[in-house]
Amino acid sequence: MKKGMMIPILLAIVLGLGSGFQEAKKEEAELCQGHYVSEAAARHQLAKFAKQFSTLQEWKKRADIIRQGIWRGAGLIPPPPKCPLNSIIHSERSYQGYTVSNVAFESLPGFFVTGNLYRPQDSPGPFPAVLCPHGHFTNPGKGGRFRPDHQIRSAVLALMGAVVLSYDMVGWGDSTQTTHDHPQVLALQLWNSIRAVDFLLSLGNVDPARIAVTGASGGGTQSFLLAAVDERVRVSVPVVMVSAHFFGGCNCESGLPIHRSASHETNNAEIAALAAPRPQLIISCGADWTKNVPEVEFPYLRRIYKLYGAEEMVENVHLAGEEHDYGPSKRAAMYRFMAKHLGLSLARVADPNRFEGIDESGAVVEKEELMRVFDEAHQRPSHALASDEAITAALFRR
Length: 398
Hints:
Elements: H1 9-14, H2 21-26, H3 39-50, H4 56-73, E1 88-95, E2 98-108, E3 111-120, E4 127-133, H5 148-159, E5 163-167, H6 185-202, E6 206-216, H7 218-229, E7 235-239, H8 251-254, H9 268-273, E8 280-285, H10 297-307, E9 314-319, H11 328-342, H12 368-371, H13 388-395
Parallel strand pairs: 4-5, 4-6, 6-7, 7-8, 8-9
Antiparallel strand pairs: 1-2, 2-3, 3-5
């Protein structure tokens, strides 16, 4: 056990892992962060996990244990009551084939999730819907959903016929009620993503059987975590993040004991496998911790999908010569997979003369000021929570 990895007994009690010292001690958990194990050790760990199941029934039993470990490690057992969303939608802009609005909703009483809503034009729906969490690219003030590549993928998916919610990580963009260093940022972001599904369904023209999620890096973590715990997500495309030896370098990915406790042990490859048998595309590259996916992580996932008789539902696109990003070739692979499994129209953005046969030129990259949810004309509601302590209390209110 690595020095400094044990969470304090007090934190275990706060997270609901025990009602007293003796109970908390039994439920001590270890944080698995960053490059927590070597590549060789990760292979050994997956082999050890594989010995624990050989039938679908045995895998489902293990999957339940892992899923409960995530909920418990995040402190979300029981989950917070779902409050009214009190949705805010304003400043709609119309472009050729789609619209963009600035949106917010309450995931907890007084805590607002912020982002942009992209919607197809000239059709009443019901539409497929895609959640687009962003990663830790650039910095909280200038990156996230404001990045051109993030706007492009959101707009192109809308042009293909999907309602798309691009939303801020905690402490990024308009999510300024706390910083990204909030002690329970993992639990808060996961809950925000669950409520983001609620928000999409509240729109009234979203098909509940066709909800998807895709993100890269830290957004990739949010993608496979959400798909693992929320079966309403029918299609997932985590990008440059599924790894057996890397557990995420930020507290929003691994800062709570979701991977290891007295009652469970897992890694991110297994967490991604919890999406089975739902369609899932793992996009990996050669220049980061996903370099081994074709030989290590993907065969493990495929074995689990095979237990369901759904081996064809999981795919891997490995770009050995590419780096850690959500660039054009990765987006093209995602568009094709989403079109295949959500019933989107790839023809609307197809052009054989463009890179990868995809024309993204219809996506308008907006200025950050236009995309802001809260500004002088649209103030954050006065009942918004204003301290880490108040947000924590709302998150763990039972």
